[in-house]
């Protein structure tokens, strides 16, 4: 089990990669990262983090879990639920993404 919130968006977090369509862009950003995790694409997830600067604070734990499943054929997963605090508070100038996922060993 790994626990992590996803992108921390806003000036207080030092991460403002876009200033328009924040709800849509934040969801796209987080779900793009989640897509790499769900696909078991460890290298792609690393490239995603490097290219976007996404502030996923549990990225190291996520990568460790994915790497631990590599010897047995790799990992795959799926997004169970996604939201962010802006959806709940209406304040997208300072919000955090949350993504529940299942990550498991690929069927051989």
Automatic annotation (TrEMBL):
One Pfam family in the UniProt entry: Memo
NCBIfam families: AmmeMemoSam_B
Family the entry assigns: Belongs to the MEMO1 family.
Designated name of the protein: AmmeMemoRadiSam system protein B
Taxonomic lineage: unclassified sequences, metagenomes, ecological metagenomes
